[in-house]
Amino acid sequence: MEKMGLNELRKAFLDFYVSKEHYKAPSAPLIPEAGDKSLLIINSGMAPLKKYFSGQEVPPAKRMTTCQKCVRTGDIENVGKTSRHGTFFEMLGNFSFGDYFKKETLTWGMEFIREVLKMPTDRLWATVYKDDDDAYNIWKELGMPEDRIVRLGKEDNFWEIGLGPCGPDSEIFYDRGEAFGCGKPDCKPGCDCDRYVEFWNHVFTQFSKEEDGSYSDLAHPNIDTGMGLERIACIMQGVDSIFDIDTIRYILDGVLEVSGKEYEKDGTETSDVSIRIITDHLRSMVFMIGDGILPSNEGRGYVLRRLIRRAARHGRLIGIEDAFLSKLADRVIAVSGEAYPELVEKQELIKRIISIEEEKFAQTLDQGIEIIGEYIADMKASGETVLKGELAFKLYDTYGFPVEVTEEILAEEGFMLDMEGFNANMSLQRETARKGRKTDDEEGWKGASNLDIPQTEFLGYETLTSESKALAVETDDEKTVIYLDATPFYAESGGQVYDTGVMSTDSAKAKVVGVTKQGGRFAHMLSEVEGEFKTGDTVFCEVDRTRRNRIARNHTATHLLQAALRNVLGTHVQQSGSSVNDKVLRFDFTHFEAMSEAEISAIESMVNQKIEEFLQVSVQETDMAGANKLGAMALFGEKYGDTVRVVSCGDFSVELCGGTHVSNTGEIGAFRILSESGIASGVRRIEAVTASGILENYIGEVERSATLSSMLKTTPDQLVQKTENLMSSLRAANSELDHYKQKEMGDSVSTFIDSADNVNGITLITKRLDGATTDDMRSLSDTIKEKAKSVAMVFAAVNEDKVTFLVSLSDDLVEKGLHAGNIVKEVAKVAGGGGGGKANMAQAGAKDISKIDEAFSVAKALIK
Fold first, then answer.
1. Quick count: other Cβ atoms within 10 Å of Cβ 463?
2. How confident is the model over 340-353, as pLDDT tens digits?
3. What secondary structure, in 3-state letters, does 99-164 show?
4. E strand segments, 492-537
5. What is the pLDDT of residues 707-736, one digit of tens each?
6. Three-class SS of residue 143?
7. What share of the chain is helix, strand, coil (3-state, %, to 5)?
């Protein structure tokens, strides 16, 4: 058996099956296709091919082979602790969609093992399902001795998930030798010891499991095989751990270089675990970002964030103080870039995202670890072993400290976390937020889903007027709501605001001021009602044409904006939300940092260019498979029906969308970005206007400019110069003020020390400082420390209706066991606040200024 590198093995496998007339498909991205809601991240070789096995789509060939990148985090706690667990792995596979079956796949499998891998056949074993005589006999024909063919039950050799396609499988094992075994005379595959390693599974999908539990034969049986690339690399390279494989060891050596640690030396098991965790997580984060996943607080973005933060923390545990993950990402790309060129293309982007996320985490890590340390000390003192969920939630909610990190730190110290309590606090927060978002209108429109009426036919794509039949009318003292059999009024959905307009019958008329949709029934809210609308009436409907046109311009502009963002910033940009009305458009998207002025200008110019190209806006109805072939963008997590609507702006933008649009991009007129801002970690927001909205915005700017010019007694053309002069004067005045403030504080140092309390030999200074900043207090405490020993300072800076406490201790007091963070926490609590910090200096905010003197008394008692 010749030693083969991981990259060499991948190529050898794919080339072999290409020689067997298989179509070599590239690895699918780690983000599942829009139509697949069953997975967050691709986690197996067959996951991207489910649509072919289920018959939902026709495969590009009846024979396929792939090497699929996969991420699994279900057993993340074991990563690093064992030699085999990893969050990222590659899965080799050959697949048949109704073409060949058992004999071919097992025959070719043995040919690859014998002729390409040159594995010693006396080390090979096979398992088959206990009733699968076909597979058993095929193995005999291939020369496998009967005593090395093991029949096992359903748990081991039958693949099924619920109802539908299923079947027996056959696994191939490699015998590592007696040294790895349990010593039992009947030791063989199926034993729990480490002697036999399964490395290739051939699944024979030949049955369909029915609802009554019976199995029927499939008309066209399939083959689905999977061989872990890292696992076969271990065998071929004669190593026991995936971390000793050539490519992965190269990454691990980088971790050793940065940390200065030695690997697998006596007494360094804790360091070894951290080294392995960092090595594995680096692979996952690089591949995930390369496929467009960005750190966020939910979904797959949270998986990525957790991996980055976990790796960063384990870097601290082995003595790496500075950011390091971005640098080591180069090693992952170096060993995987040839097989996955997208990593090379996005190398700088990958490194920037990792670097930004690592820096963000560094800001919270020290503070979080210090607070957890205080919690652990309190638990040790009280004999408790479980941290209260509400404390972990406070860490998460107030400081942004991940609960998984809290749980991991506790486990390292032998403590547990009350996850039920944490989840209860999380649920309470979400419920409170959900209730806060409800409006009276939402509550008042619940009736639609309870009405026994047909769904409403929407006519608004083709017409803005209609004659419709009133199916139901609901009236109370405050509002009238009417339901029609058909309507031209768009109901608020997909980020687009509702239409307004007028309705009338022979005896009544009203304005339509809102439209919502529940269960396919459109509820039209009416105001200024004259007369009475009755069930059965013929209702004349007319949408406000001008308002609808403005909305359509803004909606089509959001499609152009998203395409421009992906062109300028990168394909990692995904829509996170949008709001389109007749005044302004708002677009939320995933991106890892604030956009530069140059990027904003480039995007604005690109959208305007596409407007001036007068691109045809076309609409096509199809199914999800057809939409995917058109390359339509879809929102992850959005539910789409059997029929979807694809809106295309030439070849520039193709999206799934149910909204209303212009027929030509030229109708938008013009596009202007008003603002770009961050609304959440990894999510940015752009607000923009089009056409008349730009004019209205310009008129507003002119009016504001005139008002400011009048206030500053200058003209609009001199406004900038006048403002610069005023700012310069203000900076000079502030600088002079700071100088006198510092001098006054410095002159007061001796007075502060002379008037201080002596508490058991400690000089305790408590002082209220009106108008002082945190920097002022820090500077003052440093000056006092230079002139006094054994000094404890508790300052309270008052600004408007808030107070900031700062506790500062001289080094000798810290050495004696005093802790500023613990003191300031109790001091601030008196005034309705909270905070913490390091042992020598800490700060906290509070709201009740009247409690300052009481807080000082608490400080004195604590010091005493």
1. 10
2. 999 999 999 999 99
3. CCCHHHHHHHHHHHHHHHCCCCHHHEEEEEECCCHHHHHHHHHCCCCHHHEEEECHHHHEECCCCE
4. 501-504, 509-518, 521-530
5. 998 888 889 888 889 888 899 988 888 787
6. coil
7. 45, 25, 30
